[in-house]
Amino acid sequence: MLSSKKKYIVNGNSGIKAQIQFADQKQEFNKRPTKLGRRSLSRSISQSSTDSYSSAASYTDSSDDETSPRDKQQKNSKGSSDFCVKNIKQAEFGRREIEIAEQEMPALMALRKRAQGEKPLAGAKIVGCTHITAQTAVLMETLGALGAQCRWAACNIYSTLNEVAAALAESGFPVFAWKGESEDDFWWCIDRCVNVEGWQPNMILDDGGDLTHWIYKKYPNMFKKIKGIVEESVTGVHRLYQLSKAGKLCVPAMNVNDSVTKQKFDNLYCCRESILDGLKRTTDMMFGGKQVVVCGYGEVGKGCCAALKAMGSIVYVTEIDPICALQACMDGFRLVKLNEVIRQVDIVITCTGNKNVVTREHLDRMKNSCIVCNMGHSNTEIDVASLRTPELTWERVRSQVDHVIWPDGKRIVLLAEGRLLNLSCSTVPTFVLSITATTQALALIELYNAPEGRYKQDVYLLPKKMDEYVASLHLPTFDAHLTELTDEQAKYLGLNKNGPFKPNYYRY
């Protein structure tokens, strides 16, 4: 049982800064972006990997109310209108989904019970930008139970569950998100979370770096007062390292993306299950005998390849890292360059977190009916902007599925317009998200309660002890029983009996 705030504090070591170069940010943050038609298929073409993955016009099914949530006057049952969701009347359905998710998120529920009387986040004002699903709703309500005030926007224009957003708004959370936002809507929602009279955020929880970058660029004085940033995506972490390298990061940040619990569970096991779900729901295809190329063999790529191989697909892998490339070869996959197989494969999946992995040249050479999708965080991996030309015809097949047709009649099947496939087109396993959400919650507690001087203006990896604690909270679900070291064994290994059991440099 945790009995005081101090027991949430875990010492951490500084993470190794990634030496990654990015193009200069082109987005103008001191102006409101040009408004796009909310049901148009037109796009603004972004200029760099640091701003393009949030740009897209919205699409909603014809059965939906076409009135923009921004034009509606809505109030919850308590009379509050400090939110903007699709339809507040859907709150009851969203509440049921959240209750189901709670059953598969044991660690967050345990945190609520253990910290009932302590409120380790009392006084914390957290502004968040993540996917808004039933699972993140459980996280948000846990943060509220721990004493935090929260304001939230969506990090992806397609992944928001409208009924869940409505349930959160009904519960009193200022939420600004709906499925099918335009680019203008996306930035407007973020600004509504941040720009509130009399409310100064002191913590940021981000997924992709858009929120952090918005505050940094548009509200620099507010940014200087932030006590800590928690970032869970590879794209957002790269941005933070970029700021740190330039000497412009004036607050400590926690890199959750490279924590063991994120990499080895969310990235691997979540994608291993959700890649098949996303492809099945959108295309109804059979995987047996299909030729698939997976670009990238990190944890996400490993999960995708394992799932597709198990279904009988012939899987090729592309990689830039010789270590990951060797792993792919040892796991039985053929390592190729994309150009070598692009004419013959049935499915192309990107998992790199990079930009321009699939270019217009690749798209031109694909076979008829080739399926193209992305499992990385951002929408920069596939050069979708290059397909917005007069000679190509776009044909909407169903929600999140487009045919792009060439003059000779060849067509490719583009899923989610190059955005994250699983969260845009299907769902993800709740239990795995419980692991990541618990990691995020503990990282926020750690940064918020850390004594002055423990964390400097830099990017830190999650302390190993915290990773192990998150894992231990999930073991009772499996009726799992850990073996305990004897005093003699602990002395022999030079370990504390209670952990951490691996050094920070250990690679799982």
Automatic annotation (TrEMBL):
Residues 267-428 form the S-adenosyl-L-homocysteine hydrolase NAD binding domain. Pathway: Amino-acid biosynthesis; L-homocysteine biosynthesis; L-homocysteine from S-adenosyl-L-homocysteine: step 1/1. Residues 23-81 are annotated as: Disordered. PROSITE patterns: ADOHCYASE_1 (PS00738), ADOHCYASE_2 (PS00739). InterPro entries: Adenosylhomocyst_ase-like_sf (IPR042172), Adenosylhomocysteinase-like (IPR000043), Ado_hCys_hydrolase_NAD-bd (IPR015878), NAD(P)-bd_dom_sf (IPR036291), S-Ado-L-homoCys_hydrolase_CS (IPR020082). It comes from the Eukaryota. Its cofactor is NAD(+). SMART domains: AdoHcyase, AdoHcyase_NAD. Residues 42-61 have a biased composition (Low complexity). The keyword Hydrolase applies. This is Adenosylhomocysteinase. It comes from Ceratotherium simum simum. The gene is LOC101391776.
